[in-house]
Amino acid sequence: MRKANKLIDQVVEKIITEYEQNTNKQNSSDFIIALLSMMDKPTKPQDKNVHVYDRTSIKAILVEHGKNGGRKDLEKLDYLYMVVKESLRLHPVAPFPPRECTEDTTIEGYHIPRKSRIIVNVWAIGHDQSVWSKLGEYVFGMQLGLTTVRLVVARLVHCFNMELPYGMKR
Fold first, then answer.
1. So where does this one cross the membrane (predicted)?
2. How far apart are the first and last CA of the chain?
């Protein structure tokens, strides 16, 4: 295990060194460049509990960011899952996604031929109290989005020290 950790440390050190030596920083939105721009600078100079990201901190963030772990922990984050589902119900990514019928069908007396393009008002469905007796139980067609958003938020919460702004209290 020590050998593997040493090898990982050497690889991450080489990545950081290459980024530092690269004077042509074309992609300024790169995650590593963003981390290096914070190195050796106080996060909140006005705060008495100032934290400074040093080289070791940057390496730890990169190693943690590169791990595939975390996905297995998503199943344990039930509350986060409910928050993401409810957020997508209230604020759908695409409020009027177009759909194409795969076969002839009739809905409430209206004939809809195969290959017809229809527009579904997802926003109205997500806000219809007669449809949602238990509002937080289902989000229309969002399994991939739910998993992705949950994973991203979980990684952010795990990697950073989150706190309420401007001295707000719980």
1. none
2. 41
Query: What is the rounded distance in angstroms from the CA atom of residue 53 to the CA atom of residue 59?
Result: 10
- Kindly provide the residue ranges of all beta strands, DSSP E only, lying in 52-152, ordered along the sequence: 98-100, 105-107, 110-112, 117-119
- HSE, CB side, 13 Å, CA atoms: give it for residue 141: 13
State the chain's maximal CA–CA distance in angstroms. 70
Pairing between strand 98-100 and 117-119? Answer: antiparallel
The answer to whether the CB of 120 falls within 8 A of the CB of 100 is no
In terms of Cβ atoms closer than 10 Å to its own Cβ (0-12, 13-18, 19+), residue 44 is: exposed
Angle at 64 between CA 153 and CA 61, to 5 degrees: 90
Check residue 94 and report its DSSP letter: S
Residue-wise pLDDT tens digits, 31-87: 777 778 778 877 666 666 667 778 888 888 777 766 654 556 667 767 667 767 777
pLDDT tens digits along 112-138 = 999 999 888 888 888 888 877 766 555
Q: What is the DSSP string of 35-80?
A: HHHHBTSBS-TTSSS--BB-HHHHHHHHHHHH--TTTTTGGG-HHH
- Residue 138 CB partners (closer than 8 Å, separation 6+): 85
